[in-house]
TrEMBL record:
Designated name of the protein: G2/M phase-specific E3 ubiquitin-protein ligase
Single GO MF descriptor: ubiquitin-protein transferase activity
This protein's record includes keyword Endoplasmic reticulum: no
Record bears the keyword Cell inner membrane: no
InterPro entries: HECT_dom, Hect_E3_ubiquitin_ligase
Active site: C179
Domain HECT: 138-211
Organism of derivation: Merluccius polli
Keywords carried by this UniProt record: Transferase, Ubl conjugation pathway
UniProt cross-references to Pfam families, sorted A to Z: HECT
Amino acid sequence: MQEADKHLSLLGATSTVIRNITNRDELLSSSLEYYFNGRQILPLQQLCDGMEQLGVLQALKDSPDLQNLFVGGPPAPLTSSQVKDLFGVIYSVAGSSRRSAEERAVAFWRDWLVDIEEGEAVLHVDGQEPVKLTLEVVLAFATGAERIPPLGFDPNPTLDFLHDFVNNNKRVFPEANTCALVLRLPLHGNYEDFSSHMLSGILQSPTFGTA
C-alpha cells in the first residue's frame, strides 16, 4: 500500500477513496493517462519550442514531406561506392614493388565490392546451403559495425596489406583490427584467388578481426 500510495501521490490522488468498481476503473484510467501521456507533455513542449526557435517546426508545417526524415524505418542497404569511399589506403612508397602489389589489391578490392553488391559473392561448401556475402558483413568484419554511424567512424577505416609472412607462410586471408579500424588485404596475383580467399576468409572467420 505504501508503494502504491507513493505512485498515486504523483497524480494528486492520495485522497481518492475507492468505494466501488467505477472508482477503481476511474483511478486506473487516470493513472494510465498520466504515465503514458501526462509525463510526456513537458518534454514534448520543450522539443517543440526548440524546433520553433530553429525554424524546423514551421518548415515541417509548410512541407509535410519533411516529416519522413523523423520517421524510423529499415536502413537502406550499403552500396559498393559507400564502402569504397569509406576506407583510406595506406600505400608503400610510389614506384616500389610493394606499391605495385598494393595497387593491384586495391583494384581487386573495388571490383570485389561491386560483385558483392550485385549478389555474385556466394560461398559454396559441400553439404551446406550456399551463403551470400553482403557489404554489411564485410563492414562488420573490418569495423565491428554493420552500418556506418551517422557521424562516421573515428578514426576513419583504412586498408593495409599483408606483405609479411608468418612461419614462412604467405597470409592469404584478410585480417582486421576492429579497434583500430584497419582491414588488411591479402596480396594475390589474380582476381579469382583474391575473391575466393576474401569470401571464405570473412564468412568462415570464427570471430571478427581474424580469418
